[in-house]
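Is this the right way to post structure tokens for a design question? Let me know if I should format differently. Anyway, here goes:
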């Protein structure tokens, strides 16, 4: 006997919406929150990375500028030392010009004010000083000022040595000042001076 029960299926009509199960909504929301969290974390990491890069760039530039300034100060001290210790009583104008060209501040005033007496003494003694060796090192320094130690080997001849060159050594401390990119000596100290050997 045929079964009178008929099987019917219902198909949603066009335009009607089928509600997603609650578990699917929860999964989508959790995934969306996870994505947002990852993006936020990535933004934070990226921002920190950029900030670190900028900081390191500035620090590296400052360090490079400092090292460059220190190198320039040391080189200026090495150039100035021979100019200060190399002279001939027969041609002192060139000597005074060279010393004053690399000087500034108190040292320039001091040297200029005593140049007449120094000229007379060197001329009367017929003094000739030649630089044989120069060693210099920076004790301290930044981009504006520096302190350098220089040791100058010399030979000096004069009436007192019967015009025979005698070895000597000068040890000096230079205080230098950066004057618009040009390092000048503003103070000279001579704590140790070895006179020519008799």
């Amino acid at each position: 006997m045929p079964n009178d029960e008929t099987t019917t299926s219902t198909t949603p009509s066009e335009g009607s919406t089928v509600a997603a199960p609650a578990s699917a909504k929860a999964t989508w929301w959790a995934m969306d929150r996870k994505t947002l969290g990852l993006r936020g974390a990535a933004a934070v990491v990226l921002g920190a990375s950029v900030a670190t890069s900028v900081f390191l760039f500035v620090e590296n530039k400052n360090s490079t500028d400092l090292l460059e300034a220190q190198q320039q100060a040391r080189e200026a001290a090495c150039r100035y030392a021979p100019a200060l210790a190399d002279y001939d009583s027969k041609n002192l104008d060139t000597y005074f010009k060279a010393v004053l060209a690399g000087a500034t501040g108190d040292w320039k005033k001091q040297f200029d004010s005593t140049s007449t007496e120094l000229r007379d003494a060197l001329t009367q003694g017929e003094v000739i000083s030649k630089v044989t060796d120069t060693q210099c090192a920076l004790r301290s320094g930044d981009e504006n000022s520096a302190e350098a130690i220089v040791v100058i080997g010399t030979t000096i001849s004069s009436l007192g040595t019967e015009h025979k060159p005698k070895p000597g050594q000068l040890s000096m401390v230079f205080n230098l000042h950066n004057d618009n990119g040009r390092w000048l000596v503003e103070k000279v100290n001579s704590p140790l001076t070895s006179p020519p050997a008799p």
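Format looks fine. Someone answered above. Worth noting: The chain has four helices and five strands. The radius of gyration is 41 Å.
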